Give the backbone structure.
Amino acid sequence: MTESPNEIRDSLPDDLNVTAFVGPYMFPDNSRRRIPAILYLAISLGCFVLWFTQHTNENGLVSDGFLGAAILLSVVGVYSLSSSWRMTIDEKLALIHATRAVDFAVGHASAQQVWRGLRSRPTWRVFCYSEQEPPLQRGLVLIDAIDGQVVECLVELNPDS
């Protein structure tokens, strides 16, 4: 069976193609939030300056909406800036910290990045199983991605074994 050049075929996008895998995935750092935060604050300042200098003119081009936009963008910018934590613990270190926190030898484990609190502090959620086959215990450990502290550790017998 030959394929015609006009035939439409399903295919994976290039970024999902496993055969093009070149290395481990790097989780993005939350400090990237500083870039949009600075943009929000700069645009907010521009809106406020326009409102302050032009709102008394009768031309109608600058209204009190500029002041509202300046306030809203300032609040969003300050929040984004306050939640732009620099992560010092990656998923590999989080797995090491979780292995130390549970009191069993770890077999299979996985790490997931989550955020906690109002300021979105990055945290690693590590789920691990004991090394027996089938695993006798499992644990859930929350590791702070900024300072590596164990936030919470829950260990229980594996109900599936």
